[in-house]
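Write out structure tokens for Sec-independent protein translocase protein TatA.
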Amino acid sequence: MLNNIGIPGLLLIAVVVLVLFGRGKVSSLMGEVGKGITAFKKGVKDGTEEIENDTAEAARDVTPKPKKDKA
């Protein structure tokens, strides 16, 4: 169904949305979408750093030290 929408169809949809909601609402909505994308990217970056830190901590040498024999 969505395979047949091309550039003219997208332009028509954009014009209809602009007429229905007005320029102010559409621009504020796009600003909120931009903020959401920025927050998502920051969250992904923080999550990746956290995983890397956990992996580095788990990769440290935890081999038990040999016990000295009491002879």
